[in-house]
Structure formats: structure tokens, C-alpha cells
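Researcher: Structure prediction, please.
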Amino acid sequence: MKVCKLMKISNIKKIKTLEEENKRLHDELRLIKSDFKLLYKRYSEIFHIIPIGVLLFDQHLKVIETNKTFLEIFHIEQAQIINFNLAEISDKRILPAFLQIKKGFEGFYDGEYRTTFKKLDLYISVHTKPFSFEYEDEIIKGGIALFKDITEHTLAESAVNKSYDTFQRVTDNVNAVIYVIDPANYKILFMNSKANQVFGEKVGKICYKEFFNRTNSCETCQVNILKEKNTSIGIFSETEYFEEKTEQWFQLSYGFIEWIDNRKVMLLTSIDISEVKKTQKEYIHQSKEFEDALQKLTQQNEHINKQSEELKVSGAIKDTMFSIIAHDLRGPVGNITTALDIIRDDINELNKDEILDIIKPLRNSAGAAYNLLVNLLFWAKNESGETFFIKDEILLNDIIDDVLILFGPNIETKNINLTDHTDKEYFISADEHMVNTIIRNLVSNAVKYTKENGKIILDTKETRGKDGKQFIKFSVEDDGIGISDENISKIFNSKEFFSTYGTNKEKGTGIGIILIKDFIEKHKGYLEIESESNKGTKISVFFPLD
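Model: Predicted structure follows.
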């Protein structure tokens, strides 16, 4: 009896101990659940605020979940994408990256992308990989896709590349050997087509080794690079040198410019003066005792003077081009470089809106640099007589639409109200590149000289010209700062580079209006300007229909 009583007491103690243990385990479980909820909440917050778009999908490519950044990149709502099958995506260029998941591999895509739900052209970077995740208490085997919007970066990079390509095309049209070297290591950064013909492709190599087979730098470079810090950009010197391999004399012009990546580099321009030297040598050794020799020397002197004048004209054109490249191009390219440096240095401290505020003006700067270089190229070709006039049947509306896309960001930045009455289709027989240059410069000038919140009106119509013939009239009208009668007279009666500052202090070169006038006249059309200071300007070009 006593033993049973003792067993009963022992069982009661065990039950009590088990209850206490159960309570302790219950409390721990409650804490674990609380910690899990907190962890899940933090995960969810991080999932939605990371600056990378995230897309979760099952093995059948059906979308299960996205974060907020993904929705912001593509400007869509959650309901539009959830349960959407990625196999039905409209832009099939991206699809192979997702199909790799079915094979158990990662996938990648970098490039242009047209969205399914909205008409947006983006440049995106996508990385997909197999991924299992829990969703609504179910383990889903599928994949994860990480999206980055690289549109602004791609456009900025494209603008810089276009600037370099245009610089290449401009210098290829100059009849001189032109190359650029890095003063830090004497490496060749750039060569025009004439330099490639003379020396072969040498970009990336050491200049004095490749050009002159030397073991150290030339005296010219040594002297100039030593005083580089005290040498101003745009100041050039000249010297002559003899090339032993080819037995030719060259006149070398050299000085410092600011390169596309904002570096201070040395620009060298070399002109073959072998004939001049040969003539000088003959002049020195010819006998002055004979009258016919004296007459021949006189003729040779006249020939030399003529060549000298041609060299001066060529040098003046060259100096004008490089002055524009070195000074006017530096502004927009400098803006791009500065903005990118700010983003690179302060990326962790900047929020998305601040980054967007920095990035938005980059498109305007890139557009300004691109417009300047294209104008410079056409002007250089036009002045040298190398502009080819090729007529074709073109749709004027297509060119206008392309130009409006180009200047869309500038118009948006100034909050300009654009009214477009150019929807009617007009076919004209004209040179497409020249017409594009005319339309682009007319719209560029209107945007430049229109104040913020101002308005621009575009219009095309068929009309009779001054001579009674049928023309297509394209007009750009703005309510900007206007042009005085005196300055209108300069535009029509001068070949000088006449320009004024825009409403946001945009500097102009005056090349654009010269090209407009020259190119419309090549089409046997003409230009009209109606303007009043501080009230606006209307510029019209008339394209003949016959």
C-alpha cells in the first residue's frame, strides 16, 4: 500500500514536470514563430525595396510573385503580371533566357526590349536561374529572374560612341595625317583614315616605336609633355621633320585638346610638304645668271605662294573645326562625365529620385553633342565640296517623327507645349540626309530659343511658292525670344557663323542655320523667316514637288 502511494506521488511529479516542459516548449515555439514573422516581414521589406526587379515563376513559366522594383521598371500593376505565362511574352528576344530554366541552366539577356503591356522601349539586363521557393505553404520548383533597367546607361554610352564615330568621320574628311596620343604613356588613342594609310592601324600601341622605330619619345613630345600642366588646351605649335623611310618632309602641328573621356591628350596633325621642300631646294641651287632660270624661279615662287595660301585656307577650316570640337563639345560631354562621376561616387547615398534627377539632363547633353557633331560633319563636307546630293522618293512625315523622338527629352525638360499638325503624308523627291539635317536644326533651334512652359507649332501643307510653282511647306513656329531684323539680314546675307544664346544659356555655333539655307537651296527651294523680338519666330522651308 505504501509502495503504491509512493508511485502515485512519483507519477504526479513526472506529470507536473512534463507540463512545465510542455509550457516551456510552447513558449519557445511562440518566440520562434514571432521571430519568423519578424524575419519574414524584414525579408518582404528588403524584397520590395532592393533596386533590382525580381520575378518568381514556376516550372511552367507562370509568374508567381514580383517585387515593387519590377513593377516600376515596366510601369505595370501587380494584377497584370501575376499568373501571366512568360512563354506568351511579346518580345521573343528575351524568351530563351527563361527557357533555359526548363533545362536546369541559367539564362542571360542584355539589350533592347519592347514591353508586353505598355508601348515602352527599354534596355534591360536579365539574369535567370533555377530556384525553389515557398509560396502559400507550398514548395514551388521554378526559377527567379533579376531585372535591371539599363536604358539611361545604354543611351549615354551610345551618345559617347556616336561622338567618337562622328569625330572619326569628320577627321577622315581632312586631307592630313591626324592622330591622338596619351601623354601619360605615349599610347596612340586615335588615328584618322589618312594616318592609317600612311602608318597602318596602330591604335593602342606606343607612338614613337610604331611611327619612327625609336627606343624613346621624340624631342617634340618630350618638350611638350614636360610642360603639359602649364599648356592651355587649344594652343598649337608647328614644326617640320624629315621621314627617312619615305624620304618625305612633313609639317607637324601639335597641341593639347580635351578628349572624349575628359582626359588632356595631345593632338598631332601632319601635312606632306615634300613638294614645297623640293621646290625650295631647287630654288637655292638654280643659277641666277640666266634669265630663263630667274623666270622659272619666279614662277616657282608664285606656285609656292599659291600653295601657302591654300594651306592657310585649309588651316583656317581645320582651326575652326577643332575649336568647335575642343570648346563647344566639351560642355555637353563634360556634363555627362560630371553626372556619371557623381552617381559613381555617391551611389550608396542617393535615392532613386535623386539619381533620376541627375540622369535626366544627360540625354539633353548627349543630344546637344550629337547634334553639334552631325552639323560639323555636314558643314565640313559642304565646305570641301564633298557633299553628295542623292535624290530619292522620301516620306517627309517619317523624318519629322524621327526628329521629334530625338528632341523629346529636351521638350519635356522645358515643359514645352508641342502642337503637331504634320499628320498628313507628303512624299517629296529629295536627299534624305539633307532633309533630316534641315528638319533637325529647325526643331533644335525652336526648342533652344523657346522659354520654359512655352509652345511650339509644327505644320506641313501644300502651297504655291513665290514663282507660282507647287511646294510642300514645312513650318516651325515658337513663342521664344525672336530674331531682330538686323540679325535676320545676317542669316540671309552672310556666311559667318552667327548665333545667339538659348533661353537656358545654350551656346550655338551658327552652323545649323547655314546648313538649312544651303541644303534647301540645293533642292531649288527656299527659306522664309518671320520673327519679332521677344514674341517668337516662324521659320518655313519650301520643298518643290516637281
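Model: The mean pLDDT is 76.
Researcher: Thanks, that helps.
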